[in-house]
Amino acid sequence: MFSKSDNSQMENLIKEGALLVDVRTQAEFAEGNVKGSINIPLDQVANKIDRFKGKKYIIVFCRSGNRSAQAKAILEQNGFNNITNGGTWQDVNNLINKR
After folding, report:
1. What is the average pLDDT across 3-29?
2. Which residues are catalytic?
3. How confident is the model at residue 8, as a pLDDT?
4. Model confidence over 31-42: pLDDT tens digits?
5. Distance of alpha carbon 9 from alpha carbon 5, whole angstroms
């Protein structure tokens, strides 16, 4: 999903303390997740906008990248412009474990 340059950019955001948001369901999150991430299922993103306020960078991710794209759109519609679609939770996990 991402080219090498996108991965290095996302890696830098993670190093700078980006908020990591897994938008999968609670059950999916419980089966495996990225260390340090929070779980806000896609259907709750619009209701939990306050959880995103004041964050310098936000990376959203899910199982395939589809729900995170929807979450990114919801957040952008609510005035956020610091959102990165991280794709799959495994992609983000691999970047974190690489550090």
Report:
1. 88
2. 62
3. 86
4. 999 999 999 999
5. 6
Q: Write the burial class of residue 25 (CB in 10 Å: 0-12 exposed, 13-18 middle, 19+ buried).
A: middle
Query: Measured between alpha carbons, how far is 81 from 21 in angstroms, rounded to an integer?
Result: 15
Q: 32 is written with which tokens? A: 């495996």
First to last CA, the chain: 20
* Closest to 89 measured CA to CA, from 17, 44, 25: 25
Average pLDDT across the chain, whole number: 93
Name residue, tokens 């959880």: 51
C-alpha 60/C-alpha 55 separation (Å) is 13
Question: For residues 83 and 26, what is the distance between their CA atoms, to the nearest angstrom?
Answer: 21
